[in-house]
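Re: the 275-residue chain
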Amino acid sequence: MMTLNFSLAGVEFRLGEIVSGFYRHTDEFKPHLHPLRTPRGHCVTSASPHDHKHHKALMYALRAEDVNFWEEVATLPTEVPGVERHFDFTEVVSRGPQVGFTEKLHWSAQDGSLPSFDEVRKITCRHDPAARAFVWTWATKLTALRPLHLVQSQWSHGLPDGTKVNYHGLGIRFRRDFGGMTRNHELRVDGAVFKEKFQQQMGARPKEVTFIGSLDETWPVERAGVTFQQRQDNTLYIMEDYIPFMGLGPTNRAPLKLTTAQTIEESYTVAVFDV
């Protein structure tokens, strides 16, 4: 039986003694899930590591031409930092085989100017014993509050054909030992398995992608993984080595212009599992 526990710091998702995840809705910039744990209790995420403070475990953010919701700082003279501000929880299911809530958020510049989106976000979690997994859903409906030009980062990854792969959207920053410097990590893209050179899959458009890594504190070494499934056709951004990261998003393939009241609707399933 899953349970939800609310506190001033956030929302705890629990199965017995195991906390499957903690949703930090009070974060200064963007609500996120950390830690995310497997049913055996292994944490698979990292939040605000020293190399990228704005990487916050399982998170969702975009970047407009004038407001940067991802990096949480201005990286160009033409932009200001943005915040995804929590307003309310509704449709709360706090006990049962699947628990979760709907959340209302407002996206704007950090000082409250430049209102950009109203968001309705729904997050749920259930335990799947057969898959040795906690299965999450993350669904969002973003309504533009003004004409917006959603841009790609200046640090987007360039492909040989000249296109760029951006990293905004739903992203997960993994614990550092998931990186390619350790053994037994792998990437699965729609069933195809890759043991090395994950970045060769940069720009793929998978329905399902899985990142598996080894856990340093276990002996014999145990492994855990995370699978993203998407209902959209978003492009994959993937990194291994020193910055293990995976993301799918609506601007990963190209910038996007929205008119006032235009919406972005996305739905993801995220399985966090023991191997």
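The two ends are 22 Å apart (CA to CA).
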